[in-house]
Design a protein that fits this description.
CATH class: Alpha Beta
CATH superfamily: Flavodoxin domain
CATH architecture: 3-Layer(aba) Sandwich
Helix content: 40-55%
Radius of gyration: 16 Å
Shape: globular
Number of domains: 1
Protein name: NADPH-dependent FMN reductase-like domain-containing protein
Structural class: alpha/beta
CATH topology: Rossmann fold
Order of helices and strands: EHEHHEHEHEEH
Distance between the termini: 9 Å
GO molecular function, one term: FMN binding
Oligomer: single chain
Bound molecules: flavin mononucleotide
Strand content: 5-15%
Number of strands: 6
Largest sheet: 6 strands, parallel
């Protein structure tokens, strides 16, 4: 059973990338094989139907789908932009959904969502929207456990862990819940 973590931000200093990397570390500390993928390595043009008709689905969307297919559980850690998910993340999911090869990577593995924001609500509204897109739009199974991390500017210690022990434990519990669900799903 293997887990994949990625963030809906391409920014180098992204809080959400930090949280996704922390998820990978927590998983590994629990003996679970896990990787972090950076969407910087999968940049794609904005979805355009004419572009798809003329050139097909971008190679990077195909590569990301192939990567997703290698993992049993996926955690997406997303920022919140104007109360919703960033265009980068929606565009990435839209393109990957256009790759028509088997397996359907959304229906055949388990997802978890989490988010971080400098504000008070920890990207909560973005998480609600991402849940809906994954479950309703893409037919994915999304576990109920999630982490909405507020005050992200001051939330991380130098080593990438969360300063607040309770939050660190809560996040570790989300990763564990994803691992448990992914194991069941993969069986
Ligand atoms: C266009 C835009 C809209 C934003 N809207 C929200 C918002 O609705 N809620 C929120 O908590 N933060 C909002 N933010 C602040 C982001 O949470 C902040 O930039 C965050 O650091 C982005 O995530 P990252 O650190 O992973 O790149 C917004 C930022 C941008 C650039």
């Amino acid at each position: 059973m293997r887990l994949l973590f990625f963030a809906g931000s391409a920014r180098e200093g992204s809080h959400n990338k930090k949280l996704a990397r922390l998820g990978q570390k927590v998983a590994e500390a629990n003996g679970i094989e896990a990787v972090f993928a950076d969407l910087c390595d999968y940049s794609m043009p904005i979805y355009h139907g004419d572009l798809e008709d003329a050139e097909g689905v971008p190679e990077r969307a195909q590569a990301l789908k192939a990567l997703l297919a290698e993992y049993d559980g996926v955690m997406i850690v997303t920022p919140e932009y104007n109360a919703g998910i960033p265009a980068l993340l929606k565009n990435t999911l839209d393109w990957v959904s256009r790759v028509r090869t088997e397996p359907d990577v959304f229906r055949t593995r388990v997802f978890a969502v989490s988010g971080a924001s400098p504000g008070y609500y920890g990207a909560m509204r973005s998480l609600l929207q991402l849940r809906e897109i994954l479950a309703v739009g893409l037919g994915a199974t999304v576990i109920p456990q999630q982490m909405a991390l507020p005050g992200a500017m001051k939330a991380f210690a130098e080593d990438g862990s969360l300063v607040d022990d309770t939050r660190q434990k809560m996040f570790a519990d989300v990763v564990e819940a994803l691992a448990v669900a992914a194991r069941k799903f993969a069986a």
